[in-house]
Amino acid sequence: MSWLNSVRNVLPFRAKVETSEHLWHKCKGCDRMVFVKEWAENGHVCPLCDHHDRIGPAERFRQHFDEGSWQIIPAPKVTEDPLRFRDSKRYTDRLKAARADTHEQDALVNARGTIEGHAAVIGVQDFAFMGGSMGLAVGEAFVRGVENAIAASCPYIIFTASGGARMQEGILSLMQMPRSTVAIDLLRDAGLPYLVVLTDPTSGGVMAAYAMLGDIQLAEPKATLAFTGRRVIESTIREKLPDDFQTSEYYLEHGLIDMVVHRHALKAKLATVIGYLTEERQAA
Question: Considering all CA atoms of the chain, what is the largest pairwise distance in Å, rounded to the nearest integer?
């Protein structure tokens, strides 16, 4: 018998206890530990440094719709793996893994409900689903969300969070940029507001398309907002960029967005904006 086995037989080692919940969350903003319960009750915002963590569709809907007022709009059916793409893994396998992890069909989920009594359709991109990348399913879901808003005569609000176009769908992914632009034009032809809430991170083809076409552009604090990466720009212009470059605050300072709103105040702000933009229609 080895020395290690003899020690194991003598010392009262306890079996590892597995728990379904973690007690602590390490903040990505300040690297400090906070209670998961406290962090979650604070809207997934760090109570120590105010860092806004990424959240998915279910939590967004819960935070911004009136309680019990919202329902999910079914995800549209699209052709999966139209290019039969494969890199280190098959695209179909990547989709299966993302669906298992997020329990969502794809990276954009829509729901309709009320925000402080104002009817609205909200679309939320989930960065946890393949980086919130834009493919056929996201483009079709965006159009479906706009169509539902037009049918309900209410605003469409999109919460963006994306790394950009989905490379596994090639040119078909890039085609969603003009498709979403046409959908926004239809919404405006109907006299309905299109509101964008930029969240961390929003970049690439999404940033170059529907993420910057809102009637009102809002953003969460310190969100990374970019078309292309910082290193690419610095190597191209051969200059050092400001530390706050490609953040919500930088965009606000340079007039690219209208306001930066803390997550705790976002529901009330959206309700106020909707009230202003739809007052004439409601009066009629």
Answer: 89
